[in-house]
Specification:
With 142 residues, this protein is an alpha+beta fold. It is built from one helix and nine strands, in the order αβββββββββ. A nine-stranded antiparallel β-sheet has the order 4-3-2-1-9-8-7-6-5, with no helix packed on it. Strand 6 and strand 7 form a beta hairpin. The N and C termini lie far apart (66 Å). The relative contact order is 0.16.
């Protein structure tokens, strides 16, 4: 009779640390640093992209302007993932995913990936922060 009681105690004792670990990981993801600023193509490449990232009232904003075509896309409400050393923020629009990742040791560089509905990466671009972020008063407006 003591064996079932011991078995239940062992199962519960082993399960509790796992539950605690999951809640700590989710809390850590929510506290990831976000790369606010205006980003452009890396020097030496033609200037095609102007990406502006900012946060306001707990929401993550993404505004991307194609400098060749003039097309603009503004998205709100990214999902945070990754690690504290390499945060990743993903916005979704019409089954396309717009993912920005960066390394906190290189705060002036972000990687922009656009993934189509079938899961294929159709854009993988390294962008660099522009000095004097948000000089345009409309930069942080959708």
């Amino acid at each position: 009779m003591k064996i079932p009681g011991i078995a239940i105690s062992l199962v519960l004792g082993l399960a509790l640390p796992i539950v605690a670990d999951i809640s700590v990981q989710n809390q850590a993801v929510a506290n990831l640093a976000f790369p606010e600023g205006e980003f452009f193509d890396v020097e030496g490449q033609p200037r095609i992209w102007n990406l502006t990232l900012w946060q306001n009232k707990g929401q993550y904003y993404y505004k991307n302007l194609n400098l060749k075509t003039g097309k603009k896309l503004c998205l709100i409400g990214a999902k945070a993932s990754g690690t504290k050393a390499r945060p990743v923020f993903t916005w979704t629009n019409a089954k396309y995913k717009y993912r920005v990742s960066w390394q906190i040791v290189q705060t002036d560089l972000v990687r922009l990936e656009v993934i189509n509905p079938s899961g294929k990466v159709i854009l993988n671009q390294l962008l660099v922060r522009q000095p004097g972020e948000f000089e345009d008063p409309n930069a942080t407006k959708c």
